[in-house]
Design a protein that fits this description.
Layout: E1 3-9, H1 13-24, E2 31-38, H2 48-59, E3 64-69, H3 76-90, E4 95-99, E5 103-105, H4 109-118, E6 123-127, E7 137-138, E8 148-153, E9 156-162, E10 167-168, E11 173-175, E12 184-186, H5 187-190, H6 206-216, E13 221-231, H7 244-266, H8 269-275
Parallel strand pairs: 1-2, 1-4, 2-3, 6-13, 7-10
Antiparallel strand pairs: 4-12, 5-13, 6-12, 8-9, 11-13
Helix pairs in contact: 1-2, 6-7
Length: 278
């Protein structure tokens, strides 16, 4: 399967270099790379060591596209949508792999996500433990049939559970109503589903917006517990703005309102999705 990899970055040249090297180590090598620099203080292309790795990628038959935003800082969610539109025009892959700029991927990460799509899913993600913390292992039988869940009470979110930060004793593909960050997404999904473009810069909760839009459009989400990608920074991309908390609160409220609207329009679409796998 040919893949177009999308990477939005800002002021993380060292992390990007590590990520690019982990891409070079993947067992699945049929991919091209699209990078969008969101107004980094020093453009990512100006770092000699980044250019060296990009040149290596090109000699290894990967096309590399590098874009830069010079005028307005969009934030990662809007930038992802802008980059998806560029990939749909320029890319040649069957699916798009979205990565964060502070990831380290296990060598078989992409291979396992491809395996997940090949088994019938439209969106595939793995598990993403923080690299800095000791990660206890967990058996997949304790989390079947869903990794993430959501419940509404009086139109607001009462609980959102996310077990994707664990590593698992067994490798299984588990249906989920919510993908976890570094996901492989069929282009047919992107042709119908867009990223939320007006969230706060922290981007927190944008995965749920995309996931729920995918569910109501009839797409299937699978989590492969054997696919491991580490975050080098904290969740939601690290605190890159002095207005992080207000941005976080804004995103929470946006998700509450959005999910309530979906329930009013589609009924309990999450339970309907879960019922398909009973």
């Amino acid at each position: 399967m040919k893949i177009d990899i999308m990477l939005c970055t800002k002021d993380r040249p060292t992390e990007v270099a590590l990520l690019l090297q982990s891409l070079r180590s993947q067992t699945h090598q049929d991919w091209d790379l699209f990078i969008y620099d969101d107004r980094s203080g020093t453009p990512i292309a100006d770092y000699h060591f980044i250019q060296c790795i990009i040149n290596l990628l090109k000699t290894e038959n990967h096309r590399v596209f590098l874009f830069r935003e010079n005028t307005i800082r969009w934030g990662v969610t809007k930038l992802r949508q802008i980059l998806v539109e560029k990939i749909l025009k320029l890319g040649t892959g069957e699916s798009i792999l979205r990565l964060d700029d502070d990831n380290l991927l296990e060598p078989d990460y992409i291979e396992k996500l491809v395996e997940t799509l090949d088994s019938g899913y439209d969106i595939a993600s793995g598990v993403v433990p923080l690299a800095i913390q000791p990660t206890p292992k967990r058996e997949t039988k304790f989390i079947k049939p869903f990794i993430a869940d959501i419940k509404l009470k009086d139109g607001t979110i009462e609980k959102f559970g996310d077990d994707c930060g664990w590593m698992y004793l067994e490798h299984e593909i588990i249906p989920s109503p919510h993908f976890r960050s570094m996901a492989l997404i069929r282009k047919s999904v992107h042709e119908k589903v867009s990223y939320e473009t007006n969230l706060g810069f922290c981007s927190f909760r944008e995965e749920e917006f995309f996931s729920f839009r995918a569910l109501v459009n009839g797409f299937k989400i699978g989590v492969n517990t054997g696919a491991i990608a580490y975050h080098l920074n904290c969740g939601s991309g690290g605190e890159r703005t002095t207005e992080y908390q207000s941005s976080l609160n804004y995103n929470h409220q946006k998700l509450n309102d959005f999910t309530k609207e979906l329930y009013e329009k589609h009924g309990d679409f999450i339970q309907d999705y879960k019922d398909k796998f009973k």
